Amino acid sequence: MIYQTMISRTHDGHPLTANTDTTNHQHGSDVKEGLKNMKFLSRMASRFQDRCSFYLDAVCVHFISALGLTYLVVCDTSYPPVLAFSFLDEIQKEFLQSYEKNKVDAVTRPYSLIEFDMSMQKVKQRYNNPRSLTTKLNLTVLSEELRLRPPYIISPEQLRPHNNSYNMDNNIKSNTFSTSASRHRHGSYVAMGLRTLLAVGLSLFCAVLNLTRGLAVINDAHIEDYDNDHYQYAATFILNCLLLVYQVYLLCVPVKTRRPLACATLFSICLCQLYLWEYRNNYLIIFHFIVAVFGTYVIFKRKVQEKLPQYTL
Q1: Is 224 helix (H, G, I), strand (E, B) or coil?
Q2: How far apart, in whole angstroms, are the C-alpha atoms of residue 261 and residue 265?
Q3: How far is CA 310 from each of CA 9, 91, 306, rounded to the nearest angstrom?
Q4: Is 294 exposed, middle or buried (0-12, 13-18, 19+ CB in 10 A)?
Q5: Strands 51-55 and 152-154, how do they pair?
Q6: What are the pLDDT digits (tens) for 41-99?
Q7: Distance CA 116, CA 236 (A)
Q8: Other CB atoms closer than 10 Å to residue 100's CB: what's the count?
Q9: Sign (positive/negative) of CA torsion 163, 67, 73, 139?
Q10: How far apart are CA 77 and CA 82, in angstroms?
Q11: Nearest Cα to 116, choosing from 90, 98, 131, 139?
């Protein structure tokens, strides 16, 4: 069951509202420990990912952070996580509909928005009686998201005083979904299909052809003492190789600006082919052009699994 709910500002941990009933303290030391850790986590939420879980012996704390706010819940460890995060998602939606950002930012006294507890209690009662839930049919999407991107599990060591600053940041950054590269990515790609694998294979094949030809031209120019034009051709071959490798990168990594970058890469590859027209037969030129266009098309069509700040059901 769900015991306690709390909402705080993420950047400073300032408590905005929480459940006011005192019955939770009658459930024993485990729940009291869970409430203590929930308040502690609310002050540290900015150090963690946007969806986390912290497990004690009999209870656990789940929380999500979005739009500068953190929503926390204490519940039994046996309570399904998908229901807990669905509960937090519903609390989040109601809170955002009830309060404007300016009012939330202006709050200076703890629990100044305590009147929202009435709304939280209503949602809490429904989620403590799963048979009455009307959202049960909508949990499929959230269940799949939790499977693909499970909550970050906070370890007890990360909450110890000597780790609060510090090792915790390094531990979080080492997690798959909180690396520094995620700041430059736009979510994550879905699994590669046959079309993507074909585009990657063809681009790498063309890259190897260009690299081999470029090195051969450099070698010939060195032996025969050709003029600088041959070295320019060799440089163009190697540049074309690098552009094709970068296209493979865009196929595999969901960079936020991947589409304009893909267009710029395609344009550059086409310019290289025009410059190398005298060094290649028409069939190779057309083949490289088709491979580049096909790779760009796949980049545009690849589906991205968004990293959502909110967990919509």
Answers
A1: helix
A2: 6
A3: 15, 11, 11
A4: middle
A5: parallel
A6: 888 888 888 889 998 888 899 999 988 899 999 998 888 888 888 889 889 999 999 99
A7: 65
A8: 10
A9: negative
A10: 12
A11: 98
Angle (nearest 5°) at CA 143 between 252 and 88: 110
Burial of 160 from C-beta contacts in 10 A (0-12 / 13-18 / 19+) = exposed
CB 276 within 8 A of CB 237: yes
Residue 286 pLDDT > 70: yes
Separation between Cα atoms, residue 9 and residue 68, nearest integer Å: 6
Residue 278 CB contacts under 8 Å (≥ 6 apart), including other chains: none
Q: What is the DSSP letter of 255?
A: B
- Give phi and psi for 200, each to the nearest 5: -65, -45
Supply 54's token pair.
Answer: 């912290």
Q: Which two tokens stand for residue 271?
A: 């310019």
Which is nearest to 70 in space by CA: 5, 154, 166? Answer: 5
Residue range 230-250, pLDDT digits in tens = 678 788 888 989 999 999 998
For residue 24, what are the CA distances in angstroms to 29, 40, 134? 10, 18, 25
- Beta-strand runs (E) in 158-279: 188-189
pTM to 2 decimals? Answer: 0.52
Burial code (b: 16+ CB inside 10 Å, e: under 16) for 25-63 equals: eebeebbbebbebbbebbbbbebbbbbbbbebeebbbbb
Q: At what angle do helices 228-252 and 258-275 cross, to 10 degrees?
A: 150
Spatial distance between the Cα atoms of 17 and 121, rounded to a whole number of angstroms: 12
**Cα separation of 269 and 207, whole Å?**
11
